[in-house]
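Protocol step 4 of 6.
Sequence for Zinc metallopeptidase (Hymenobacter montanus) entered exactly as in the expression construct, tag removed. Do not edit the line below.
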Amino acid sequence: MYPILILLMLASFVIQWRLRSKFKEYSQVGLKANLTGAQVAELMLADHGITNVRIISTEGSLTDHYNPTDKTVNLSEGVYAERSAAAAAIAAHECGHAVQHATAYSMLQFRSAMVPALSAVSTWMPWILLAGVVMINRSVIPLGVGIVLFSLTTLFSFVTLPVEFDASNRALAWMDKRGVVTTQEHAMAKDALWWAAMTYVVAAISSLATLLYYVSIFMGGSRRN
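Step 5 output, structure tokens:
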């Protein structure tokens, strides 16, 4: 199990590096439509009849996200003002989440419904797992509780996958239909979004591997007790 976890950590590092490399490369290619990321976001929201979502600039790099609570599309400084295929792709992707929200996309609703429970247990879960491992020779109950709680985070990671892939598909389809990107720019946008999606895939697999690791400890403790 340890070699698998180490390989997944390395894979995560490589994918994060590759994503930043791709974003930097595609950020240097000017968008023929000459639209900033913020303007792309405005167009996509307008085309879908969404008028109650604000587009704001946020600090940092690759910190872009959609907040369903206050209905804001948060674009990093490099995406908000840039006129590139990468900026257009990320801006449209985040608006894809806004479209999901507006159309009551079931997987987004499911993921959003899980957030309060995850927030409630996230503080205590690592300590419960640690206590469970330390006390495994006395009782498997603490670790069993920790596994149940950790399984929620693993489920959340896998529920996130269709949400992210769907948002990217919506973004790419809209950009083509609207004529925001050329054929070459579409390929760059698709590649950038694919690498972004891979970060979620590796995170989900890593979470599952970690869960199985704790389950193996639990099973060993059950046999001894």
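Step 6, annotate. The helical segments are 2-27, 37-47, 77-80, 85-102, 106-122, 125-134, 141-178, 183-224.
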